[in-house]
Every structure is written in structure tokens, then in C-alpha cells.
Amino acid sequence: MSANEQADVVVVGLGPGGEYVAGTLADAGLDVVGVEAELVGGECPYWACVPSKMMIRAGNLLAEAGRVSALAGEAVVTPDWGRVARRIRGEATDDWNDQVAADRLTAKGGRLVRGTGRLAGPRRVTVGDRTWEAQRGVVLATGTRPRIPPVPGLEVTPFWTNRDAMAAKELPASMLVLGGGAIGVELAQVYARFTCAVTVIEGQDRLLSQEEPEAGDLAAEVLRADGVTVLTGARVRQVSHDGTEFTIRLEGDGEPLRAERLLVATGRHADLAALAVDTVGLDPTAGAVHTDGQMRAGEGLWAVGDITGQGAFTHVSMYQAQIAVQDILGQPGPDADYRALPRVTFTDPEIGAVGLTEQQARERGLRVRTSVLTIASSTRGWIHGPGNEGFIKLVEDADRGVLIGATSAGPAGGEVLYGLNVAVHAEVPVHRLQHMIYTYPTFHRTVEAALGALR
């Protein structure tokens, strides 16, 4: 008999997708080992999706109070950051939630192993000096970690990542944000609304560079309205820290930038070498684990979540996890389909998008029609008044007569996105969408006007 320990399935990484896979397979009667080096539940509930949206909610309430008070000619008192932070995170919340998640797995019959898992060949995983042999296979769900750019001086400074920004108990007087993607702009707005002097530095020509140009322009507009300094097309030459403040020198002859804190939000990456993927024939220098439509990365090997390179979103991880579970259980189901991949940047206004941007569609050689209408042009936008910035942009494949992309930015941009997501995913003909009944007066009624404006 082998000296190695046995299991049906070993799940390496218990973020949202991995936790779902481990729990569901254990509930189905399989002998499952879940391996996690940090907190069960992963980045989302502790340092990303959940606490960030609570912070954003607090900032949005403060901004809305300011708009109402401005109409009445009254001042708004900014609440103490520390009290807000404590209410958001609570005391010892992380440890409590981690234990609840761990207990949930064991209650279903799964086994939790604390530590860093590494592949040791096909269907084999090591954690410390222990090795498991997985009879059915291994699921990789280790997520990603912050990408730290190779800027001279940066590595030796006490910079923040999103985790530090989420856990901060005191509000800095000033902060530099390196990176103008979703994480950077969300946190920049929150901190600015609590009176922190914020500067965002983005190397691309606009914020949210992966989205429509109109989305980046809107993000810059609303950040500046909150007092944020936005620098685009800016390249960082050097970073230093004197024990009190950070200094950033940009390429060119401009004045250096200084602030109490520096948040690095320049993307995330998967560390495949740390997983020893070479032991199963995969490239440890690759940016992601490539899978087929059933999330198979090899014989007896599946991968779900950020590590697959299909977008660093919890909803993608959960979507992939469901497909992997069905495949492992031998239940036939459709392949993963990313044509209608939705995403939302939770600024105020929210900026939601699904499918292809206009540029991506044109790069694929498609003949497209587009339209852009502002939320303020709708009755609901007019009613809403202050804070009604936003727009609907549609991208149609003109030859097939279906939407292949859309952006919904506005006070409820992420919620309005749902209908557009359905339209793109189901390939509902545009002429049918044009003859729907759209509720009056709603933000989503702007979609009807945008459909009529396609050119």
C-alpha cells in the first residue's frame, strides 16, 4: 500500500470557486481534501468584493448627503474614518468567518488542510511533508496575487496593496494610487470622499483602459469632481520613502509627487511556478492555466477562477466551479461561454459592461453599429438630478442584428447591466429588443432610446 494519503479529489485553494467545488463534491459523497494557506473564502470576502463595496457604500452615502445638503445650503460633517472602518470590518471578523467557512466544509464531509499546496505529478499534491493521491483528480483554484511593477525603489518601500487599503484603521492625509483600473479608481474615490488628498497615476492614455473610452472619461470626470488628481499617460521613473512620506518621480521634467501613502493597484497575476505545474507538463512561466470548455487543464486536472485568465471576478470563478463540478461528477453540461462576460466598476456612478467593446469588435473584423446616450437625457436621469452622470453604449453586430457588447454607466449601472447581459448572452435580435415594453420612469429605459439611436 502506498504511504501517501488518499482522497477522491484535492482542491488547491479555497477561494469562492475552490470552496464551492470542495463543498459541493463533498456533499455529493466524494472524499475531498481542501487545501488553503490563508483564509477559507479567499480574497473576495476579506479584502476585495465585500469590504470594498461596504466602504464604497459609506462613501456614496456621504456624497449623496453632500448633494442634498448643497441644495439646502448646509454643510456636511465627514464621519470619522476609524469608526466607519470598524463598523465595516468588525472585530476579529476575518477569523470568525474563516472558521465558519472551514466548519461548513467539514460538515459536508470534506477535510481541510492548512498550508501551501503544490503539485507533485499527475493527481498528486504535497502540503509540507504530506502528500495526497487524488483518485479522480486535482482542482487548481489558487487565484492571483497583486502584480508589483519593476519600478526602481518600489520594492523596498512600505507601499500598500488592496489588502492594506481595506484594513486601514486610520485615514491618511494623502495617498498616491498607482494604477487606474477598477481597484485603483474605486479606492481612490472612497478615500477622497473621506477627505484624503488622492492622486491617481495611470500609464495608459485613460482610466479603465480595458473598457470603452467613454467609461474612462466618465471615471476621470467623477474622480476629479471628488477632488482627485488624475494623471494619465504618466510613467513612473522612481519611488522612494523617507520614513514619513512617499516620493514618486515621473518620466519627464515634472515636479515629484509626494504623499503619506502609496497604493499599488496595477493588476494581478498567477504564480504558476509556486504551484509546480511543470510536474504535470504545464508551463510554469505562463500567465494562466489554459483549460478546455469543461475546465480541464489535463488528465485528472481542472482549474477554476482567476488562475484561468478569464477575468479576475468572483462570478467567473463560481461559474467555472459549477462546470468543473459537473464534469468531475460525470454530469454532461455545456462548455464555458465567455461571450457575455459581465463586469462592474463600483464607482459612483457604477460602470457596468458586458461582451465586446467597440474597438474589440472592430479588431475582429465585425461590421458594427453603435450608439451612446447619456442617463441625464432620460426622464429618470432628469428626476435624479445631482449624481446622474452616466450613459448607455451599445455595440451591435450589424450583419447578424444582435448586440455583442454594451456599457451601462449610471447611479444603478451594475443593475441595469442585467438586461443587457441577457440580450448579449441570448443573442436576442435587436429588432425584438426595440419592440419590448420598457418601464417608465426607470434608468433602464435609456436602453430603449439607445437601441433606436444605433448607427
UniProtKB/TrEMBL annotation:
Origin: domain of life: Bacteria
Record's signal peptide: none
Top EC group: oxidoreductase
Cofactor names: FAD
Keyword match Transcription regulation: no
Enzyme Commission identifier(s): 1.-.-.-
Domain Pyridine nucleotide-disulphide oxidoreductase dimerisation as annotated: residue spans: 342-448
Family annotation (Pfam families): Pyr_redox_2, Pyr_redox_dim
Keywords: FAD, Flavoprotein, Oxidoreductase
NADP keyword on record: no
Any one GO MF annotation of this record: oxidoreductase activity
Positions of the FAD/NAD(P)-binding domain: 8-321
InterPro entries noted in UniProt: FAD/NAD-bd_sf, FAD/NAD-binding_dom, FAD/NAD-linked_Rdtase_dimer_sf, Pyr_nuc-diS_OxRdtase, Pyr_nucl-diS_OxRdtase_dimer
Family from the record: Belongs to the class-I pyridine nucleotide-disulfide oxidoreductase family.
Protein name: NAD(P)/FAD-dependent oxidoreductase
Species this protein is from: Streptomyces sp. 900116325
